[in-house]
Amino acid sequence: MSKKGICYLVGAGPGDLGLVTLRAKECIELADVLVYDALSSGELLKWTKKDCEKIYVGKRAKDHALPQDQINALIVKRTQEGKSVVRLKGGDPMIFGRGGEEAAELAEAGVAFEIVPGISSTIAGPCYAGIPVTHRDHCSQLTIFTGHEDPTKEESSIDYEHLAKAPGTKVFVMGVARLREICGQFVQHGADPNTPIALTRWATTGMHRTIEGTLATIADIAESQNFSSPAVAVIGNVVKERAKISWFEKRPLFGKRIIVTRTREQAGTLSKELAQLGADVVELPVIRIEDPVDKLGFAELVSSAHEYDWLVFTSPNGVSRFFDAFYSIHDDARCLGKPKIAAIGPGTVSKLREYHIGCDLLPEKFVAEGLVEAFKKEDIENLTIMVVKPEVSRDVVSMGLQAMGAIVDDCIAYRTVAETEDPTGAVARLREEGADLITFTSASTAEHFFALGVPWPENCVAGSIGPVTTQALVELGHPPAFEAKQHDIPGLVAAIRKYLKV
User: Fold this and answer.
1) Tell me, what's the pLDDT at 152?
2) Which of 104, 69, 102, 66 is nearest to 87 (CA)?
3) Where are the alpha helices (DSSP H) in 96-178?
4) What's the rounded Cα separation, in Å, for the pair 270 and 251?
5) Residue from 59, 83, 256, 351 carrying the catalytic annotation
6) Among the four 389, 411, 477, 479, which has the fewest Cβ within 10 Å?
7) How far is CA 179 from the centre of its chain?
């Protein structure tokens, strides 16, 4: 019996990943095909299965990657093939998202579909700008309209006379290009030229920006600041509340664009901490982790781990690779035996905890030299030690332990290679928009970043997690502006705040 397909019309929310619904996440994780547009957060792509087919159909007013009729045909065809299709749309699919048209096509084709609402930028944008669209002191009515119409139409279908006279707040999207005309229509049909208006672009994201004015002045203000779409506009006295309750734009790193170069799987922790502080975080993974060349040798060492006195983990990646392999062989943690566990830093300890493994030895300084120094307080002469490490790395730990009389085997758990995929267009963003800071969390991230050949942005600085990374940056001709005192992610975040004086 052939599998029946289904298409999910999913609202991706306004941009902040935290505003995506749990149902949307479930759909994305199960999707065989993901059809997404330009307003969807690129972070959502990480939730897909490895074999998910990702199709970009992004749309702007004058730039369509795929015309609407072809998008309709595409989602129908893939669903008819028995696939689980997710049509991911910015905001809510049924609020100026043409979700109704796509649902009608699916219904006409006789295929199953489900509509998953999302938080619309028409509500979230003003909220993040500190503007309540309804307020007991100002209004109890909200009107939402679109500022973008078919350019081939001879006359507008928007009743500006009605809008100008309607009480309460008016919110519109897709109207930056016609802002002067829209405001003019309001004034022409009786609205007070001094009515407050605010525009927020890329609302809820790190690129969030808000400008304020009146119906008479906002077009000039927008032009003078090169304010562009996508943006949501709010008209009405509720804009006055922004002076008191603006919150998102007061975060300490607001307005700072920071590049994170860690692997796609590891970037999340650093990105989340920086984003919570208000930074515009651009994830540009320059490396990815792959299996070691000698897979058999790795598997044999993992299977004999119970024979060792110590297991030493030099990175979170090593922990993941080791225990994923271990549990593919064994289904009982007790099969590990009783080796003591050493880790190079708190990030590695945290990853061990995910596998319910404790740590017996953690150095004061989270570098290879610090781990060797910590072992000097242990009696390891003639003891067997397995060092779980990447294919290309310094031999400081292994050589140091051997010098103390230990019998050491290197367990090569993974190798670091250049990341070749850039589904979110991070490289293009860096080239076009620049950055305030680029973070480096290992020597390999530094080496592979500069191998991209991307021009170093003007007035941009590098931030290093520790001395080994700093040395690599110096050798590459880009000494960092600062180095984390504590060589882990919390230490790097603290160093960033100290450098930026926030």
Assistant:
1) 52
2) 102
3) 99-109, 121-128, 160-165
4) 17
5) 59
6) 477
7) 31
Fold of 6-118: Cobalt-precorrin-4 Transmethylase; domain 1 (3.40.1010)
pLDDT for the residue numbered 41: 72
What's 2's DSSP letter?
P
Catalytic residue among 83, 89, 92, 174: 174
Domain boundaries, the chain: 6-118, 123-248, 257-286+419-500, 294-417
16, 32, 37, 280: the catalytic one is 37
Q: Report residue 76 as tokens.
A: 């129908």
pLDDT at 298: 96
Predicted local distance difference test score (pLDDT) of residue 97: 86
- For 159, other C-beta atoms within 10 Å of its C-beta total 13
Which of 446, 454, 443, 437 is closest to 502 using CA atoms? 437
pLDDT at 421: 84
- Omega prior to 230 cis, within 30 of 0: yes
The total number of residues shown for the chain amounts to: 502
- 37 is an active site residue: yes
Q: What are phi and psi of 26, to 5 degrees?
A: -60, -45
Contacts with 64 (C-beta within 8 Å, 6 or more apart), sequence order: none
Calculate the average pLDDT of the chain. Answer: 92
> Tokens 């007790």 appear where?
334
pLDDT number for residue 266: 78
Of the candidates 370, 271, 357, the one whose C-alpha atom is nearest the C-alpha of residue 314 is 370
- Please list the ranges in the chain whose pLDDT falls under 50: 1, 61
| CATH architecture type of domain 123-248 | 2-Layer Sandwich (3.30)
In the structure encoding, which two tokens stand for residue 85, read together? 């299709």
Fold of 294-417: Rossmann fold (3.40.50)
Whether 312 contacts 371, CB under 8 Å: yes
Quick one: CA torsion of 245, 247, 249, 252, rounded to 10 degrees? 140
Q: Is 216 helix (H, G, I), strand (E, B) or coil?
A: coil
Same fold, 6-118 and 294-417: no
Ramachandran assignment for 424, one of left (phi > 0), alpha (psi -120 to 50 degrees), beta (any other): alpha
Is 92 one of the annotated active-site residues of the chain?
A: no
Q: What secondary structure, in 3-state letters, does 306-353 show?
A: HHCCEEEECCHHHHHHHHHHHHHHCCCHHHHCCCEEEECCHHHHHHHH
Helices 443-451 and 467-475 cross at an angle (nearest 10°) of 30
CATH architecture of 257-286+419-500: 3-Layer(aba) Sandwich (3.40)
Compute the distance between CA of residue 80 and CA of residue 110 in angstroms, rounded to an integer.
Answer: 9
